Amino acid sequence: MEYLSFDLSSKSLTLKKSDNIPKPAPDEVRIKVAYSGICGTDLHILEGSFPCKEDGPVTLGHEFVGTIDELGSNVTIFKVGQCVAVDPNNGCNKCDHCHNANYHYCELGGINNTIGIYRNGGWATHALVPETQVYLIPDGVEMHQAVLSEPLSCLAHGWDKVNPVNVGSKVLVIGAGIIGLLWTCLLHLHGLRKTVTISEPQERRRQIADNLGLNYDIKSPSEMKGNFDVAVDCSGSGPAMEAAVSLLGPGGRLCVFGVASPQTKLTIEPFQIYKKELSILGVNINPYSFSKGLALLQAMSEKYINYNKLGIKIFSLSQHEDAIHALKKGEISKAVFKL
Fold first, then answer.
1. Distance CA 202, CA 195 (A)
2. What's the Cα-to-Cα distance from 289 to each of 21, 135, 218, 261, rounded to whole Å?
3. Taking the CA of residue 265 as centre, how many other CA atoms within 13 Å lie in the half-sphere pointing to its CB?
4. What is the 3-state secondary structure (H, E, C) of 193-261?
5. Is the separation of the CB atoms in 285 and 154 below 8 Å?
6. Mean pLDDT along residues 163-183
7. Using an 8 Å Cβ cutoff, are 54 and 112 in contact?
8. What pTM, to 2 d.p., does this model score?
9. pLDDT band at 53, cuts 50/70/90?
10. Within 10 A of 209 (CB to CB), how many other CB atoms are there?
11. To which H or E segment does residue 180 belong?
């Protein structure tokens, strides 16, 4: 078994090998990982600005797909050899939040118990996953496309929260990393055409966005003007979100989708919120929306989920330093490990 071990105390990421492949517990399946993504949240974890497991090393990677190669004794739904995607999030199923279908608010579950953040994840050749967090990959979807099912499930939750977004709505997408690019594809899928603008400071990422061929306006932040109905922040940048508030028209909505550092602060004029009746809404992970993410994947895969157009590059685990460097420099929109 080969895996990347992260230790928060030293902020070190180390490639390790072991002759022992872990055995699944009765309610788990073992997955032979095929592809595992690097998320922007992972970069925050590596630099120490986002919480993760503190009491010892952990294998990161909360976006991964693969093939089931061993079943726990109580598993009845799945079979060895099936191609599956993993929802890294769950709840305790005991608290009021979980009983009200809001496990992303759960103090024991949600983002506080995520596979690949608090439990060993997919930056490894093998991973153990509870049966309840495993989903079959739809027919016609390739494994390398399915690795985007977790971020798409988060987009599905965001889409539910930000709607209605009608055809003709003026929408600003802030940031042209992979999440911003997927949001633009989602908007295009839902019929929005020439009313979407992408704001991105890095020229290389503006080029990647243009390469999608969606015929959207792509501008640097200094060029931004207008009265938008909706702004979706995919950058996690405080200054970008502050600027977005001034770009919203009456009744406008700011969707805070990007994950900011916990130390990031915003300065917003309450008078503008009052005067224009603005709304600010947050989107936290993917509560019960993984099936919707898979449906989006199936609908988008042929036309939109193209690595070359999206600026996604494949790396091996041993190339993790190159992958992280390319992401931080904005040379690519996303890095994916191929195991």
1. 22
2. 31, 12, 30, 25
3. 1
4. CCCEEEECCCHHHHHHHHHCCCCCEEECHHHCCCCEEEEEECCCCHHHHHHHHHHEEEEEEEEECCCCC
5. yes
6. 97
7. no
8. 0.96
9. very high
10. 25
11. helix 178-189
